[in-house]
Amino acid sequence: MNLGRPFPTNSKISRKGHDALDVLLFDQFGNYVIQTMLDIAVEAKEKKRVGNDSWFKRLAERIIKSQHKLIRYSSGKKILEKLSAAVSDDKDIIQDENFDPALKSLIVPKKFR
């Protein structure tokens, strides 16, 4: 089953360098869409849902890229918390050689969430 690539390299980008994902990350209602996408990507990564597990990594990379802006908004913090929970619950991902070290600094101990 081919579910496509999460972020095609030929995606349309605005004149300001923003694509649809950037808009959704910072939109009041788009934020919910991103949270749902992240939930689905986590389920696909954990094989609880049929899908391409590369969605999680690519979505996580885009969230990390915008984390300094996201942290300023309560809706952005929700996205970062979801990502942090997904990463901290997965012991294998931290040991993966392809794991982005930027994610490790995002992991917040559960007692502080």
Task: Name the features.
113 residues, mainly alpha, 7 helices, 0% strand, globular, disordered N terminus
Describe, in short, the structure shown.
GO terms for molecular function: RNA binding. The chain has helices at residues 20-26, 30-45, 54-65, 67-70, 74-88, 91-95, 101-106.
Describe this structure in words.
The protein is an all-alpha fold and 113 residues long. The chain has one domain. Helix content is 58%, strand content 0%. The protein is built from 7 helices and no strands. α1 crosses α2 and α2 packs parallel to α5. The longest helix has 16 residues. The protein starts with 19 loop residues before the first helix and ends in a 7-residue tail after the last helix. The relative contact order is 0.13. The N terminus is likely disordered.
The chain-level mean pLDDT equals: 75
The total of helices stands at 7
Q: State the distance separating the first and last CA atoms.
A: 37 Å
* Helix coverage percent: 55-70%
Secondary structure: number of strands: 0
Order of helices and strands: HHHHHHH
Q: Unreliable runs, pLDDT <50, ≥5 residues?
A: 1-10
Radius of gyration: 14 Å
Protein name: Pumilio-family RNA binding repeat containing protein
GO molecular function, one term: RNA binding
Pumilio repeats: 12-52
Organism: Wuchereria bancrofti
